[in-house]
Amino acid sequence: MSIFYVTPVTAEDYRRRARRFLPRFLFDYIDGGANRESTLGYNVSDFEQYRLIQRVMKNVDNVDSSTVLAGHQASMPMALAPVGMAGLFARRGETLGARAAQRIGIPFTDSTMGVCPVEEIQAAIRQPFWFQLYMLRDREVVQALLARARAAGCDTLVFTVDLPVPGLRLRDFRNGMVGTGLPGKLSKMAQLLWSPRWLLDVGINGKPHCLGNLSEFVSNPNDLNAFKTFVETQFDPTVTWKDIAWLRSIWPGKLLIKGVMEVDDAQAAVAVGADGVIVSNHGARQLDAVASSISKLPAIAQAVGAQTEVYLDGGVRNGLDVLKAVALGARGVMIGRPWIWAMAGGGEAGLDNLLGLFQQEIRAGMALLGVNRIDEVNRDVIELANAHAQGKAGL
Ligand SMILES: Cc1cc2nc3c(=O)[nH]c(=O)nc-3n(C[C@H](O)[C@H](O)[C@H](O)COP(=O)(O)O)c2cc1C
């Protein structure tokens, strides 16, 4: 560790700061993936399989990173992904994230499992935002939640389909985040006492901590056992495309299906009327050993990109990753862990700073690719690291 002040400039810099700020079990809850965390690595490292193509002697005096995401004008092809319990990682975390997203001009997505209710976010930003939903067994609850989100100004529904059951995130077992035994509880208590800055700023001053959109069902998000019980009893593992057709019939806004990894699933989403698909493996928190999301993007974009909007999340860590995803056919990307690390490690200013850095990287990257507009970021600006494998990767 350096004894001099180091200005954070990357997601990784903020990750290190978040680690110092958060109780260990909360840091691991964000940082970890399922089982051996193989896919967690693939999501990030597979971006290295692609190389951007440098072009020179182009007039790049008018670089413009703006685009349209699900009908929203955005300053860059990026949105904040839904992250459950974000209000435990920084004080009123979802509202903080929504304000930062608004300032830079990108969409914010509130999770079903968010600490801040949709009404609190609406009061803070007074503009439309996105709402993420899981299918619950009780469809009346689903309808009530949707009506509430709509009334609070959510015009885009991100419907997550990759969590019929929760993935096995083993770090949560190891460090006492889940489990009811006394040793785990004592360990958690010690971790809380070891994090006095978090305890005061979020633990005490960030209350209430209930899951704002679901407070009738899960009262205490600090208790992951309550969360687990809720998921096990209320999340509906019987959901099929028929239910998405029903959802489509009752939701008048844009509908994005999140968690699609295969071409025929993307086609099924289009067939039931989705306005977009999000290529995602839930940030490697569900099925471990599944492929990275970036490796699945080209085929899906090729198959359904003309009919629907294709998005990607998982492993995006800087502005050049964003450009790679766009070049491979994504209309935009979502970031999960990076925005959480930035706000946990640097508060609202930290998140502003990281989003600003993404934007600078995107704009400088576009200039060095020789393009001025996002719709010029296409297959012409990207190649495989191993150029002989081009055909295999659908390039
Ligand atoms: C701590 C944490 C909580 C998450 N909670 C949700 C959630 O409530 N709903 C959801 O659809 N996805 C959730 N995700 C997945 C993210 O929306 C996103 O798919 C993923 O984080 C993208 O990968 P990245 O973290 O590598 O950017 C969560 C991810 C993390 C890290």
Describe the fold and architecture:
By secondary structure, this protein is an alpha/beta fold. It has a single domain, classed as TIM Barrel. Helix content is 43%, strand content 12%. The chain is built from 15 helices and twelve strands. Helix 1 runs antiparallel to helix 15. The termini are far apart. The site of flavin mononucleotide has 23 residues, from helix 2.
Offer a few descriptive terms.
TIM Barrel, 395 residues
Distance between the amino and carboxyl termini: 42 Å
Portion in helices: 40-55%
Number of domains: 1
Strand content: 5-15%
Reading side by side through the largest sheet, how are the strands ordered? 4-11-10-9-8-7-6-5
**Helix and strand pattern:** HHHEEEEHEHEHEHHHHHEHEHEHEHE
- Poorly predicted regions: none
Walk me through the topology.
Layout (H helix, E strand, L loop, with lengths): L10 H11 L2 H8 L6 H8 L4 E3 L14 E3 L2 E3 L3 E3 L12 H12 L4 E2 L7 H8 L3 E5 L5 H13 L2 E7 L9 H5 L7 H12 L2 H9 L19 H11 L6 H10 L3 E7 L2 H9 L4 E4 L13 H12 L4 E5 L5 H9 L4 E4 L1 H33 L12 E3 L11
Parallel strand pairs: 4-11, 5-6, 6-7, 7-8, 8-9, 9-10, 10-11
Antiparallel strand pairs: 1-12, 2-3
The structure holds flavin mononucleotide (FMN).
Would you summarize the structure shown here?
With 395 residues, the chain is an alpha/beta fold. Helices cover 43% and strands 12% of the residues.
